[in-house]
Specification:
The chain has 476 residues and is mainly α. It has one domain. It is built from 20 helices and 2 strands. Strands 1-2 form a two-stranded antiparallel ribbon. The two termini are 29 Å apart.
């Protein structure tokens, strides 16, 4: 074996180096009074370099005979997910200082390990490496969900997540075994050359899609989502809702378009059904929620439906639209979770919607930034969310099928529904009166930094055309 091929895996190689540096920094400074500040500075500094490192220096590459394949589109998504992970690290700092100071090193290493698994999963050219990457990402995520040891619902959320993850992995492996039985290979390119529609391959496709549907929390594979999001620490919930979802979505998109291209007529209709169910059911359930993290859980299920709408057209525009949507979704959703996190830290751990009644009276700046983020999630112009929805709608009708137009129409109608339930939070902050609003508090520098990054993205990603052009130029 030529071990020099590991150098083709530059993003993963760099993440392993970061993981080692963070581990030894945590170990060597365990008795230092400034350990936590140094550890935070080292981790964020190294992780902040990663998006630029991937965007500037990473080229499309292969290693180990096609086992590892990093296309330009995958490298773009890695850049975006690394950028989102930096935001998570920054916004998590108030929570770590208040409730998990001694476990800061472990939290950072879990974040990095999860991101490493996602990178491997996205760059896989073989079902075996794909599954190894998926599990490398899933196991640390379960630990992160259970990170708040003083809360019973954190352990409950982790238990539900790991049980569902185990079940979905089993279903997926069952589907992969069918595909292997039909084609005699696990390499994506070889499967694409040999696969043909038959009862065996159709069942393999359905089981494989179902397994990844659990990871993306598409309806009807979404039942774990609300309980896990509510039980997990707020920074972890934000990480689950955007970074994990984005990695799984781009991987599913690439495998469907590349490996299962000869069976497009089967998975297209499967996507139609799942997208309509995900957007509609999630929106209806979101209206009923009074707990904000559960509310955002159903919002993320609905957003997953919009993300997968880009795949329906089976085109290069779909890849670019999906990637752009994930980028915009990261900044908008992380802005919301940053506000939820800082309010939770300053309001006795409350995350119910009633805690935001009269919020504008005492904290007008946070209320304004929360409103901008919610409007972007709803797709209100001129914010970036409107442009991302426009591109996925265009990608959805790219193939010209009547069913695709119907699905896009349903998605458009549901955009109005989503605006209604996002406005429920705006109503609570600006209109609903209360005798005991949340007291005025000063946001820490970490929260302000995270919100500044997210707000800049919400305002400029939609109007700065070079961002979308950079994504579109990557192609497949």
């Amino acid at each position: 074996m030529n071990y020099g091929q590991f150098l083709n895996m530059i993003p993963e190689f760099y993440l392993v180096i970061i993981l080692i540096v963070v581990f030894f920094t945590d170990f060597c400074l365990h008795k230092s009074e400034k350990k936590h500040d140094v550890l935070f500075a080292v981790t964020v500094a190294l992780m902040a370099v990663l998006p630029f490192r991937i965007a500037i220096f990473s080229e499309p590459s292969e290693a180990f005979g096609g086992l590892y394949v990093a296309s330009a589109a995958v490298n773009v998504m890695k850049t975006i997910l690394a950028f989102g992970s930096v935001i998570v690290l920054i916004m998590a700092e108030p929570w770590l200082k208040k409730g998990a100071e001694k476990l800061r090193g472990e939290f950072y290493m879990l974040i990095i390990s999860t991101l490493l698994g996602m990178f491997i999963m996205m760059s896989s050219g073989n079902f075996l490496l794909f599954f190894l990457g998926l599990e490398t990402a899933s196991v640390p995520l379960a630990c992160m969900v259970a990170f708040d040891r003083d809360r019973n619902d954190s352990a409950e959320g982790a238990a539900k997540y790991i049980l569902v993850a185990t079940f979905s992995s089993g279903v997926m492996l069952f589907g992969i075994s069918f595909i292997y039985a039909a084609t005699g290979t696990l390499y994506f390119d070889d499967v694409a050359a040999k696969i043909a529609a038959s009862p065996l391959t159709i069942m393999g496709l359905v089981f494989f899609f179902s397994g990844l549907g659990f990871k993306i929390s598409l309806v009807p594979f979404h039942f774990w989502t609300a309980d896990t999001y509510q039980g997990a620490p707020t920074p972890v919930t934000g990480y689950l809702s955007v970074i994990s979802k984005g990695a799984a979505a781009i991987t599913l998109c690439i495998i469907l378009m590349k490996t299962f291209a000869p069976m497009v007529e089967y998975w297209d209709y499967m996507l139609y059904i799942v997208i309509v169910l995900s957007i509609t059911v999630a929106n209806l359930f979101a209206i009923r929620q009074s707990e904000l993290k559960r509310f955002m859980a159903f919002s993320s299920i609905s957003q997953a439906g919009y993300i997968m709408l880009a795949v329906v057209g089976n085109s290069q525009l779909g890849i670019a639209s999906l990637t752009y949507y994930v980028l915009v979704y990261i900044v908008a959703n992380m802005a919301v979770f940053t506000v939820i996190n800082v309010v939770e830290q300053n309001n006795g751990g409350r995350t119910d919607m009633a805690a935001y009644n009269g919020f504008y009276q005492t904290n007008p700046k946070l209320s304004f930034l929360m409103t901008l983020a919610l409007f972007s999630l709803a797709g209100i112009p001129p914010f970036a969310g409107m442009f991302s929805k426009f591109f996925v709608f265009m990608a959805g009708v790219q193939n010209g099928e009547p069913m695709a137009y119907f699905v896009v129409f349903v998605a458009l109608v549901n955009t109005v529904v989503s605006l209604y339930y996002y406005l429920l939070i705006v109503k609570a902050m600006y209109i609903t009166k209360t005798d005991t609003p949340l007291p005025t508090f000063q946001s820490d520098c970490y929260t302000r930094t995270a919100l500044a990054i997210c707000t800049a993205g919400i305002a400029f990603f939609g109007v700065v055309s070079c961002v979308y052009e950079w994504i579109a130029a990557a192609g497949m």
